[in-house]
Amino acid sequence: MNRVEMRFLSLADNVGLARIAAAALAGQANFSIHDIEEIKVAVSEAVSNAIIHGYENRPDGWVDLIMELDQSGMTIIVEDAGVGIADVEQAREPAYSKDPERMGLGFVFMESFMHGLEVESTLGRGTQVRMRRFVTLSGELSRDAQ
Ligand SMILES: Nc1ncnc2c1ncn2[C@@H]1O[C@H](COP(=O)(O)OP(=O)(O)O)[C@@H](O)[C@H]1O
Ligand SMILES: [Mg+2]
Predict the structure, then answer these.
(1) 145: pLDDT confidence band, cut at 50, 70 and 90?
(2) Burial of 100 by CB count in 10 Å (0-12 exposed, 13-18 middle, 19+ buried)?
(3) CB-proximal residues (5 Å) to ion ligand 2
(4) Probe ligand 1: pick from 53, 93, 129, max atoms within 8 Å of CB?
């Protein structure tokens, strides 16, 4: 069992910091290199969303990254106190983005690379993304693990 709480400013440079921290923690458990790559992508997407959408690229918001390791896997929470999401269901739809220039695949990656994704958001208050990745023998995403 291990737990890490990090708080960093909403700067694009901190996406890399979050990825490395997640990879380092995942490395303490039985995750494969492949698993760790996917965990890094999921963390990048959640942290990028907090910065780009939550804080609308303002550099003075706090992003909280909370990570917990236990015997069965890793839980990752990314939280911002930004603008919030009006319609979470719509935001999670594949190819939906508020910005037509963007791909709208962040939530799709998080969902497909992790075993569980929960999004809680309140307009004007912020967003919390919680995801979990199980350690599986094959290293593959296994529905049985749920
Ligand atoms: N932390 C957040 N705060 C506010 N809005 C968010 C947040 N995360 C996601 N969103 C909203 O959900 C939409 C979809 O997110 P995502 O799937 O990552 O696609 P993209 O980032 O390419 O727009 C975003 O366009 C944005 O409107
Ligand atoms: Mg995104």
Answers:
(1) very low
(2) exposed
(3) 49, 106
(4) 53
Q: Say if ligand 1 is within 6 A of residue 60 CB.
A: no
**Residues with catalytic roles:** 45, 49, 102
- The band of 1, judged by pLDDT with boundaries at 50, 70 and 90, is very high
Q: pLDDT tens, 123-142? A: 999 999 999 999 976 545 55
> Topology of domain 2-145, per CATH?
Heat Shock Protein 90 (3.30.565)
Does residue 113 have its Cβ closer than 6 Å to ligand 1?
A: no
55 burial via Cβ count (<10 Å: 0-12, 13-18, 19+): buried
**Mutate which of 43, 52, 97, 103 for ligand 1 pocket (most atoms within 8 A of beta carbon):** 97
Q: Where are the domains of the chain?
A: 2-145
What CA–CA distance (Å, rounded) separates 94 from 10?
A: 25
